[in-house]
Amino acid sequence: MFELKPLSKDGIEGALAKAERYRLLNEPGEAESICLDVLEVDPEDQRARIGLLLALSDQVADAAGAGARAEKLAAELEGEYDRLYYGGLVAERRGKAHLHRGGVMTPHGAYEWLTEALTFFDRAGRIRPPGNDDAILRWNACVRVLRQHPHLQPGAGAPEEPQFLE
User: Fold this and answer.
1) How much is the pTM?
2) Can you give the pLDDT of all 166 residues of the chain as single tens digits?
């Protein structure tokens, strides 16, 4: 069996830039591979962890287990804001994947993922750095999806809708 070759520490910056380009080219599998290579050299590199999380969340609709892996990575990020923001991003993408997949459980599943994302974005928005409105942008995107798909409804026992408070 072939063995993986390790990156040099000096190659990390270029590798992370390449991973981002692959994501932008809609090749999340390539970006995932690069981020895994970086994490082999530096397991604590937050940029690689976030890049891997984003690459996995790009694959939520297609790759089994990608959403759960991305969710786990989000929970392990340094900094409460990053954990909340990226946790919301993963939930949002899972909700949208559920919506596009269709099926009898779509109205409940997509709604629950999207409202979970809203909860994350609300909490992130409360502690966001000055000038960083990313959580608000994502909140608004989720609200628009819910408005565009009024058939999405909570399942039995679902919590109340979160309200973004400042």
Assistant:
1) 0.89
2) 999 999 999 999 999 999 999 999 999 999 999 999 999 999 999 999 999 999 999 999 887 899 999 999 999 999 999 999 999 999 999 999 989 887 666 778 899 999 999 999 999 999 999 999 999 999 999 999 999 999 888 876 544 545 444 4
- Residue 74 in domain: no
Cβ-count burial 118-134 (b if 16+ within 10 Å, e if not):
bbbbbbbbeebeeeeeb
50 and 126 share a domain?
A: no
59 and 119 belong to one structural domain: no
Is residue 73, in this structure, part of any structural domain at all?
A: no
Shared domain check, 157 and 86:
yes
For tokens 């997509």, name the residue.
110
Cβ(64)–Cβ(45) below 8 Å: no
3-class state of residue 92 by DSSP: helix
How far CA 128 is from CA of 47, 80, 121, in Å, comes to: 18, 10, 10
Place of tokens 């596009």: 100
